[in-house]
Amino acid sequence: MSSAPRTIIVIPAFNEEEALPDVLAHLATVVPDYDIVVVDDGSSDSTYSVAHASGANALKLPFNLGIGGALRAGFRFASENGYDRAVQFDADGQHEATEIARLLAEIDNGADLVIGSRFAGVGDYEAGRTRTAGMGILRVLVRMLSGRRFSDTSSGFRAISADLLAHFATDYPLEYMDSTETLITACRLGYDVREVPVTMHQRAGGEPSNRNFKLFYNYARLLVVLATSARRRPNSMVVKPS
């Protein structure tokens, strides 16, 4: 009999001591056979201690790199330790552990990247007006640059195959809005990208890492990055391994 795929939950965390204990406890109850790595992104609180005390793998970055840097560290840990698939999961309590199986089912059916969508008709997640407007712009941009339609281009609840995990371990954007950049990149490189509806909750504790006044800068930066990447010739990029 073949063994089950080795699965790891990758959790980037910045000052999440308030919500993280419940998140880790819930994961331990729902998916006890999956390993967890928490990447403390230079927190000033006890995030690392909470993660370490729970029995999860805990990585501590020396200073705050941003979510992209934390995710790259977590993906590198997963790839170098031979995991077959990974789940990107938030530390703030928004993601629902019972939905992990829905994402991984698509990975098992051949997908490389599966996005858990907040806006595909399940649940009652609500975003603020600024974020909602920004997300609408991102959906249009992603459709123009990838040729694909997605309802949630910035969701941080994702499942990733071993092939794409190896790519992300060395080539993952360090800036905020990394999720949209990597979605477009995965599509352009020929990876199988899918979206499934999931239920998400509002933040359980702590403070969002980006407030509204910072979002304007981040959206403007992303527009420049996407416009630049759109000029790159597809045959000059490394494509999915056959």
Q: Any overview of this molecule?
A:
- The chain is an alpha/beta fold and 242 residues long.
- The protein has one domain: Spore Coat Polysaccharide Biosynthesis Protein SpsA, Chain A, CATH 3.90.550.
- It contains 8 helices and 7 strands; from the N terminus they run E-H-E-H-E-H-E-H-E-H-E-H-H-E-H.
- It has a 7-stranded mixed beta sheet, sandwiched between helices.
- Helix 5 (129-146) packs parallel to helix 7 (178-188) and helix 5 (129-146) packs parallel to helix 8 (212-230).
- The protein is globular, with a radius of gyration of 17 Å.
- The model has no long low-confidence stretch (mean pLDDT 85).
Overview features:
242 residues; 7-stranded mixed β-sheet; alpha/beta; 8 helices
Can you give the helix content as a percent range?
A: 40-55%
| Number of structural domains | 1
Main pleated-sheet profile: 7 strands, mixed
Tell me the strand percentage band: 5-15%
